[in-house]
Amino acid sequence: MKIAIAGAGAMGCRFGVKLQSAGNQVTLIDNWAAHVAAINQQGLTVTTDDGTDHVYHLTAVAPQAVTGEFDLVILFTKAMQMDQMLQDISGILGNHPAVLTLANGIGNVETIERHVPKSQIVVGTTVWSSGMPGPGHIKVTGTGSISLQAVVPTEFADFSGLLTTLNAAGLNASQADNVMAAIWKKAGLNSVLNTYCTLFDCNIGEFGALPNWRTLNDAVLNEFEAVAQAAGVAFSAQDVTDLIAAQFSPETNGGHYPSMHQDMAHQRPTEIDFLNGYVAKLGAQLQVPAPTNAILAQEIHAQEALKGIS
Ligand code: NAD
Fold it and tell me: According to its UniProt record, which protein family does this protein belong to (predicted)?
């Protein structure tokens, strides 16, 4: 299969290596010029769990330079970079490739729909993970899985073929029963752990040890539940709270600093407008107030402004 990965950061590169190693023809598309140059000149270095480095030779291009026909485009930008990326790669979208995103946040389908017919779009969530210490270099740990669903299952051309391609690459993909519920569940977790750990400059275990973590958690998730209900999406604040509580121990994710914390520390924009900010905005449209989520989004934006992040 000819696969373009648009947004070849930590996750895009991890998926790119797995898909190319399984025999697919992969093109990485990215805006970070130094990263693209490093991949083309020295190859992509992947540091694995045991600390060893492996070099993979993939083709990388800038979005404006990509041409050709692709069977599948995987969007792995951050949520707020997706619209611009889709504009920049419009030249390869005309041949009706399937378009898949597993990016975090709510609202990615709405973004993609502005550029691609609904019948070609697949969305999902993933628990694969990856980090990027520098250009041309990713660091991967553990294994993961993907849960995904076509936006219009009756119109998507070859869903079982897509699953076969992903699973042949060892990506552990399966069909979701209710992908929007899964996306909201992950966003609920991120809107508690990412947001508070960033604001309090703490890791997940330290957040869980706060005597009032439950009050802080419930303020976010009760609004999520009310807005989700008005939007017709299944969401249980209790289920997400249970999932969050399961992350606190050192054996799970207690020592981990969520990605938003890392984005802030490295002076990169956060995905807050697709987490708490999205729920606040949708709540306002649906006349379901979400003031806690609205103010948390503003607090993150204030921290971005103080750090000069735009
Ligand atoms: P990333 O920050 O590694 O990459 C996203 C984009 O930002 C890429 O185009 C990358 O080249 C660019 N970028 C990164 N660092 C840069 C720098 N210093 N200078 C210039 N450009 C830079 O993002 P990611 O971690 O691959 O995440 C992609 C999506 O997947 C997000 O929605 C994220 O929330 C989600 N996700 C990530 C993980 C994870 O473990 N990383 C896990 C699950 C879901």
Answer: Belongs to the ketopantoate reductase family.
310 pLDDT above the threshold of 90: no
- Spell out which residues line ligand 1, taking CB within 6 angstroms: 7, 9-12, 30-32, 35, 76-79, 103-104, 126, 129-130, 132, 259, 271
Q: Evaluate whether 3 touches 71 at the Cβ level (below 8 Å).
A: yes
Distance 77 CA to ligand 1 centre (A): 6
Q: Tell me 288's DSSP state.
A: -
Question: CA-to-CA distance for 190 and 82, rounded, in angstroms?
Answer: 19
pLDDT in tens, 224-263: 999 999 999 999 999 999 999 999 999 999 999 999 999 9
Averaged pLDDT, 179-187: 97
What is the predicted pLDDT for the residue at 280?
Answer: 98
Domains of the chain: 2-176 (3.40.50.720), 180-307 (1.10.1040.10)
Average pLDDT over the chain reads 97
Nearest to 187 by CA among 263, 260, 126, 275: 275
Q: Please name the helix (run of DSSP H) or strand (run of DSSP E) that holds residue 263, with its range, or none.
A: helix 259-265
- Of 72, 80, 58, 79, nearest in space to 3 by CA: 72
Asked if residues 309 and 267 have their Cβ atoms less than 8 Å apart, the reply is: yes
- Catalytically active residues are 186
Query: Cβ distance 236 to 225 under 8 Å?
Result: yes
Over range 186-193, report the average pLDDT.
98
Give me the mean pLDDT over the 257-275 stretch. Answer: 96
Report the C-alpha gap between 60 and 4 in whole angstroms: 10
- % the chain with pLDDT above 70: 100
CA 2 to centroid of chain Cα atoms: 22
Residue with tokens 């023809």: 25
CA distance 264 to 171: 29
